[in-house]
Structures are given as structure tokens and as C-alpha cells.
Amino acid sequence: MTQKNTAEQTVKFYQTGTFTVGNRLLDEEFRTVQATEERSNSIDSGHRACQGCGQALGARYALDTAMRVTNNKIIAANATGCLEVFTTPYPETAWSIPWVHSLFGNVASVASGIAATLKAKGDSETRVIAQGGDGGTTDIGFACLSGLFDRNDDVLYICYDNGGYMNTGVQRSSATPGGARTATTMPVGEHPGSSFNTGKFLPAIAMAHEIPYVATASVHDLHDLERKVEKAMSFRGARYIQINVPCPLGWGSLPAHTIKLARMGVESGLVPLFEAEYGELTQSTKIRYQIPVEDYLKAQRRFAHVLKPANVAQLETIRALAEKNIKRYALL
Amino acid sequence: MTVQHKPFAITLDVGSSHLNKTGSWRSMRPVYVDRLPPCNKACPSGENIQGWLSLAEEKDYQGAWRLLTRDNPFPAVMGRVCYHPCENTCNRGQLDVPVGINSVERFIGEQGLTHNWQFHAGEDTGKKVMVIGAGPAGLAAAYHLRRLGHQVTIFDAAEKPGGMMRYGIPKYRLPREKLNAEIYRIEQMGVTLVLNHAIDNIERSQQEGNFDAVVVAIGAQKSTHIDFSGQSSIPILDALSVLRAIEMEKRNPLIGRVVVYGGGNSAMDVARTAIRMGAQDVTVISRQEEAHMSAHPFEIKEALEEGAQLLCLRAITEINGQVITLERLKTSEEHHSGHSHGVATGELETISADVVVLAIGQVLNDDCLSATPKIVVKNHTIEVNNMMQTGQDGIFAIGDAVPSQRSVTTALGHGKKVARAIHAWLNGKTYQPAPQNEVVTLDKMEPWYYSDAPRTVQPHLESMRRKNGFAEVLGDLDQDHATYEARRCMSCGNCFECDNCYGICPDNAITKLGSGKGFEFKYDYCKGCGMCEAECPCGAIAMVTEDI
I need a surface site. Which of A7, A162, B195, B360 has the fewest CB within 10 A? Predict the structure, then answer.
């Protein structure tokens, strides 16, 4: 699955570039995992995610890539959250991979335990993935995750970040963006929506642990996402990938706009895509066509109040955040 | 299977989520559609441009040629002389620059000539059709009729076939070996060409030859003339006879100071030909300002590059001896039928000339129609119904002779249409054109997925090298560049198997059927979120309401 660029293949990119999932003009080996008929479909049809769920998509993207890279040798632990709830209402399961459900807060530790067991058994081929939503990662599971990073256990932790506790009714998490309306941060009073200058940006915290690999990805750019998962699997030790997954229910957006919103988040500068190795920023994914943050906010009901004239200060704060990201992560 | 083994309150067996048919959630269903790309819609010959570009992208040049020539038998010619309205409507033009469709068409046409690909006649129907005029309309009609299996004989008064393609379009735009080769290919299908044979009585010729139907494709051969006041001592010629004389290598009338009167493409053809024939200087006089001249901007630009002078907003009022008096005009705000008309200012100026060429239009020469009173001529064109049939049953008329846009491409389109109409008529039916699909506009597409790819520039002869001969101005694309250019096509409205829908469905509710076979929705699981429609780059998916 390495992206080779022979002269012949370069010519073939022009119609759609590398941005679509596949391309009939490309040799199979140059297409994404998702373009193949043989993809694992780690999460299969019949799951009960809402229409247009970004998380269902992000999880299939990431796990199918990991399956391809490891020759189908992965075990996934899963924190409580949307992903667990919508895939495994008893007695059905949408998982076609070895999968274990943990508590809300201890998925990092469960994954560490599986990795330790594999080590004890002398199995160096089977790899471990821990996954959770932003609530289970940045709030409830934070201590266990930090411990995993600290011990540098051989686990890839994937956080599907939709900015809130969506499955329990859209409550604020410490990853909810400033200004966003949630059930617990209603757009009322002097400071409507989620407060600014609080919360956690976990990729930066992961980098501070100086683990081998940290990356952010987005469901709109599959090539970038698959490349990052593949890269993560090339390291041993603790790795962290945070995937931005729009949530139509929690964000107040159209199900059809999930990928569009993911794209707009990145292109507005509010969702920086980058990679870091051993605590150092190594690469950022450039914005292809920059858009104003308003365009991104406008498409989501959770930010409706931000666009009212009375809340122009909030809009300015969000704009400044985008500018800071663009500068900090060299996104242009 | 017994219920008692199941845990409390559980009625289902443990198993895959496949048992959960989430398709029942849906109120809208996605369907794959073919929408009409704007290039196809704009093509007067009705080419399936997106279709043949798609084959060219795969380097299946013969496939592309076969698909292209289903509608247009002259790819190497049209790849040179078509004014490509397709490119003006190309959706890519809203992103960067339109796809160079014309240059790829030319490449495909050249492939056809290089490899000597041939057309095939249809199964013989025993019907005979007479075509009058071997111009683009007549030749196209003959080609399409032959494909449908009819016997075709073309009569033309000239000594060589091609009509305006030969006697109107100069060699620097259309080398004659290309034209000859593509006409010869039509003859090879079994079309009979009778040259140097003017028809003066259509019905009599039809009866003598036992023809079941007739196509009148006689063009607009009579030049419009103006009688200027004054005592002129210089020749006043018309564009058509000048170009014809040059083509037939007769005495060159374009000597000394040449003044061309007119603002259309014929005026540019004459001016650029005069430069090549060694005229001392060449001046084009146009009643319109440059922006409103009917000549294509590139023709004006190239003529100026080659050294022609352009005097706009002027009218010739009289010619005395060698002195031409011009009156300056000013732009009128009123627009009449798309043209702006200059308003006289009374300001006069003079220039001297050795020859004046009028390029102010041509009309139908209806001499051959007088014996057939049922063919009605109105406003210098033959009246036809929407099936191109004249007032005389079985006699059809097409091309410049009927009301039309008067381009080679339009003539070719007429040729195709009349062939289908005649085919139906010969079988006692009325031709029903297939309904057109909805046109796909950029708002139905997701252009983010298309990477930036600047247009390929065709090799272009330096102006210094153009002036002293009839070498072709525009060059060919090589294979790499033609492939690149074809791949700039966004395949508007037609699936190009980018796998986006298959990849982005959160419910894995799409089956990939394999290369060339497309995709299929699994409606058992599709929740109808509409993401596939929103993210289809080319707009080949539509959401339709479910009947619930």
C-alpha cells in the first residue's frame, strides 16, 4: 500500500488526482484500501449508527487499513460510547474483527493488558488497537491513556473525535469546541455555548508524552487517513491518532454533509491535520482551498448563535483559533 | 432452535448485524443516474464527448474514435476547424480552464488516419438516396445514411468534394490531405460521388436516378454584394470567389494593398490568406467594434499577429479610382438580433487600395429549386419542418441552405439528423429523437476531488513563420499530452468509477461490481443518508423519495 509515483502513474492522476477513494485509471495497488472489493469491512452493514455517521466511517477506514497492513492480525478494544453501542446491541455484532468492549474509562489499560499478553505469548505479529470517542478519551479514560503513553505500550490508540457525548444526548466533553451548543452548554446567558480557553487538545498532550507517533486525521481525506494509520502501524510502542468525525445529531447538520463538514473543518483551519514523531511535529497536511470559518459554522446548528451579531466576539475568537492553527501547524 | 436457551428478554439469536435491515430507516433512496454533460449538450453534431474522452483517458483510441465517429465522420477535420462550443460550456471552465476537447478530438482523428480505421456500411436496405452537395452537410448525411444501409449518391457542381471545407476554409487551418483522407473514407463505405455535376431540376434527377429520397445540401453559395457610389477603378471581389480561386490555384487576385470589408470569419480568412499570398498590406474594415465582430477572437488575434490592420466602426461610403471613402461610426446602444449596429457620425476619411474584397455574407443560390415549386424559400433559406423535410414530400434540406447557425459542426449535426429522419420516413415512420437527460451543472458535482491540472497548450506556429506560406498554424498534441488533456475531463454526470460512493458509505451499503461494471446499492442496509450523492464528484447519483 505504499504510494509509489512512477511516471506512468503520475500521468494517471490528473482527472481526479489522489483525492477520490479510488480511480479506475490507477493500478489496484495504488488505490486506497476502501476502494478494494477485498476490504475487511471491520464494521459491517446493519449497525445502528445514525444516518451519515462520521464515526462509523472513520472506524471502518482506520481498522480496514490496520487489517490490511497487519495481514488481518489485529485485536481491538473499545471504550463505551457511540461506537460500542451502535455496533453491538446484544445479540448482534457489526464487528468482523476480534473485538472487546471495556469500561468507559479503561480501554487504554485493557489494550495494554492485551499487548502484554501477546508479548508474554511471544506473538509479535498480532497488533492491538484501542479506540474510543472523545469523552472516553479526553475525560473519562484520560488517566489510563496517559499511563499507556508513559509505559510506551505497543498499542495504537484511535480517538474518534466528534466533540461531545453524543450517544447519551449530546453533553459537553473536554473536546467540545468553544462556543458550541450542547445539552449542558446551552446558548444562553452572557457566554452562550461551550466556554473558550478550557478543554483539552489531546494530540498536543500525546506529543508532550514524546511517544513514537501522533497524528490527526479527518474522514474527508481518506488517502491522508490511510497513510497515517499505515505509518502508525510501522512503529512499535504507544501511538495516538485522533480522527475528526462529524456527528449530524450532535452538530445539528445534515447527514449528507458529514464528509463536507469534515472537509470544511480542515479547510477553515479549525481542524489541523499533522503528524508528530517522538514529540516533534514532522508534517502537516496543507489546506487545499481555504474557506472562511463562517462557512463551516453556518452548516451546523450548534454554532447558530455564534453567527448572530450579538456574539461577534465569539466569532472573532473562533477566527483567531483558526489563524493560530494555520500558523502553528503551517497549514498553508 | 429453542427459546429457553436465550437470555432473559432476548428473542433473537446471537449473530451478525446483517440481520438488522437498516434500509427500513430510509425515506430517500440513492440511485445511479447518467446526466447530460454540458459539452455533449452544446455540441451541434451531438457528439458523446464525455464518452469518447473517457475512452481516450484509458488510451483506448480506437474505441474513442469509434464512439466519436458514430456522430461525426470528420474527427481530424473537426479537430481543426470546429469552433468548439463544447469548450465554452465545459464545467471545468468554472474551476480553471475548459478541457481542450478540440485538441483531443484532433489527436483521435489523427490516430484514425494513422491506423487507417474504416467505417462500415449498414446492411443493405435496397433504398436509394440522392444527396445534392458534397459539403460537410451532404457528406455527413451520406455517411449516416450509408451506416443505416441505404445506397447514396452525392452530386456536386465542383471538381472536388468538400464544399466550404475545401473552398472556404484556408489550408493553414485545414491541410487538404486530412480533408481528402476523411472524405475518401466515406467513399470507401460505398458512397458514390458524382462531381462536376450541377443539378438544375431536382425532381427530374430524382426520377431519372430512381432515388427514394433527396437531401438538398447546397449551402449558401451566393455572395452578398453592395454597389458603392463613385467611379471605382479597382476590382471589387467577394470572399468566396477569392478563396475558391486561391484553392484552385488560379491567378492570385490578392495583390498590392488589399482591403477586406466585413467583420466575420470569412473576412479573417481572406485577410490571412492575402498576407500569405504576399499582399503589400492588408486592412480589414469592420462596421462593428472589435468586441462585437462576429469573427472568433482567436481569428482576429492571429490575423493581427500576422500583420493585418483592423479598422473598426467604419463603413465604406464610396470608391473613386483607388480611393475608398470611409465614414466613422459610433457604437449604438441598441442591439438588434445580437449585433450592435454602428451609427453614422458624418466624419469621413480615405484610404487607398488595389483590390477590395467583400466578406459581408452569403445567401442561398436557389437556381436549382425553381423547378420544384413545393420547396419554399423564405428569407434566402429553404423552409423545412423539424424533420428537415421541405414542402416536397421526400425532399429534405440541411446545412447552410436552411435556417441554421452556419458552422461546419452544425452542418454535420444536420447530416445526422436528416439521415435518421429519412430512415424513419423510408420505413413509413416519423423520427423521434431520444429524450435528453437532465444537464449536469457544477452545483450537482463535488469539484474538491478534482486536482488542479492546467490546460495543455497546443503547439502554435510563430507569426513570422505563418506569413509566407500555408503551413498549419496549430500543431498536434503528442500522446502524453492528449492523455493528460483527456484526463482533465471531470466526466460530468457520468460515473467514472472513482469508488467514492463505495468508499464513503458509512453503512457499507454499496457493492462494487468490478471494473467497468459500476456499483449497486444494497437497499437492505442503505439508510438514505445521501452522503454518496453529496460526495459523488461528477453528479452521477440522485436521491429520490421513497414510496412509503
Answer: A7
> Does the pLDDT at position A31 exceed 90?
no
Kindly report which listed range (A219-233, A271-285, B322-336) carries the lowest average pLDDT score: B322-336
Separation CA A159–CA A240 (nearest Å)? 8
Q: What is the mean pLDDT of residues A68-81?
A: 97
Q: B472 vs A244, B80, B169, B481, CA distance in Å?
A: 56, 10, 12, 19
Cα B397 to Cα B43, B204, B248, B409, distances in angstroms: 20, 17, 28, 16
Quick: pLDDT tens for B320-346. Answer: 999 999 999 988 766 555 555 678 898
Q: CA-CA distance, B22 to B507, in Å (whole number)? A: 9
Minimal C-alpha gap between A135 and chain B (Å) = 21
CATH of B128-221+364-426, one of 3.40.630.30, 3.50.50.60, 1.20.120.80, 3.40.50.300: 3.50.50.60
Distance between CA atoms of B303 and B282, rounded to whole angstroms? 10
Looking at beta carbons, which residues of chain A come within 8 Å of B525? 45-46
The 3-state DSSP class for residue B299 equals helix
- Chain B's closest residue to A245, CA to CA, is B506
> How far is the alpha carbon of B526 from chain A, nearest alpha carbon, in Å?
9
Decide if B128-221+364-426 and B224-361 have a common fold. yes
Is A248 in a helix, a strand, or coil? helix
List chain B residues with CB under 8 Å of A9.
Answer: none
Taking CA–CA distances from B508, the nearest residue in chain A reads: A45
Flag whether pLDDT at B26 surpasses 90: yes
Q: Do B508 and A41 touch (CB under 8 A)?
A: yes
Place of cell 464512439: B67
Confidence label for B13 from pLDDT (cuts 50, 70 and 90): confident
Q: How many domains does chain A have?
A: 1
Cell, residue A250 = 450532535
Q: Considering only CB atoms, which chain B residues are within 8 Å of A45?
A: 17-18, 22, 507-509, 522, 524-525
Q: What is the CATH number of the domain that holds A142?
A: 3.40.50.970
Q: How far from each other are the two terminal CA atoms of chain A, in whole angstroms?
A: 27
**In this structure, what DSSP letter does residue B445 have?**
S
Q: pLDDT, tens digit, for every residue of B226-282?
A: 999 999 999 999 999 999 999 999 989 999 999 999 999 999 999 999 999 999 999
Beta strands in B23-90 (DSSP E): 28-32
Q: Are B276 and B463 in contact (CB under 8 A)?
A: no
ipTM: 0.93
B509: closest chain A residue by CA: A45
- Nearest-CB residue to B529 (from A31, A94, A256): A256
Report the pLDDT value the prediction gives residue A15, as an integer from 0 to 100.
59
Q: pLDDT tens, A166-177?
A: 999 999 999 999
